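<context>
A single protein, sequence plus fold
<entry> Chain with its tokenised backbone below
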Amino acid sequence: MGMGGAGGGGWQSRRSRRRGGGAVMAEINVTPMVDVMLVLLIIFMVAAPMLTVGVPIDLPQSEAKSVDQDKEPLVISINAEGKTFLGDSEIDPNELVPKLQAIAKAGYDERIFVRADKTVNYGTVVKVMGRLSGAGFKRVALVSDIEQGS
């Protein structure tokens, strides 16, 4: 009459069937996770060379150690043709100081990094740095690549 009666099994037989063939796996299948990680690795390996800072420039090499950075500094770049860039946008050298002063008043970090292609005339770099110094910016640094081997 009832569920677990003399009828041969009822509830207990169903329960034991569930445990036997279709038991819940307690293991984690890592194969899909490894597949996703490998795809991400390939994507980042392809995308990393495209993530250059600002204007592509062939920097000179130096033995100086790298500077620790906690905030993103302002970056002025001078490419091989002598064009001046503030960040990624080209700017007239005469407009450089007023734009930087406006940015500094907005509370941005006052450190300025000057990146210049190694083929640029030294006078062009000195002219830009002189304008920055004359405008009162005292934390100006030149950016270079680390020298490989001696």
Notes: Residues 61-146 form a domain with the Nucleotidyltransferase; domain 5 fold (CATH 3.30.420.270). DSSP finds four helices and seven strands in the chain.
